[in-house]
Design a protein that fits this description.
- This protein has 73 residues and is mostly helical.
- It has a domain at 37-73.
- Helices cover 45% and strands 0% of the residues.
- It is built from four helices and no strands.
- The chain has helices spanning 5-11, 25-34, 45-48, 55-66.
- The longest helix is centred in the last third of the chain and has 12 residues, at 55-66.
- It is elongated and about 40 Å long.
């Protein structure tokens, strides 16, 4: 399968400048998966800027969006 890096770059919202995986989604997903994280494209612009790519952060943000935050008392 051919990588469509140019097309992928148009949609990539990652702001981490030293990243060498931008536009190469399969490498980005593999990298973050090994770290227990999700890529930037799963996060809003504001959330992406925090660089917290953890799955816990993703779930928390989405529960907050739904008004059902279960991670805090």
């Amino acid at each position: 399968m051919e990588c469509k890096k140019d097309i992928n770059l148009e949609q990539c919202n990652c702001t981490w400048e030293p990243c060498d995986k931008k536009g190469v989604c399969c490498e980005c997903i593999r990298y973050h998966r090994r770290r227990g994280e999700l890529p930037a494209c799963y996060f809003s612009e504001d959330a992406e800027a925090s660089y917290d790519r953890s799955i816990e952060n993703f779930v928390r943000l989405n529960l907050e969006k739904q008004g059902k935050n279960r991670f805090h008392d």
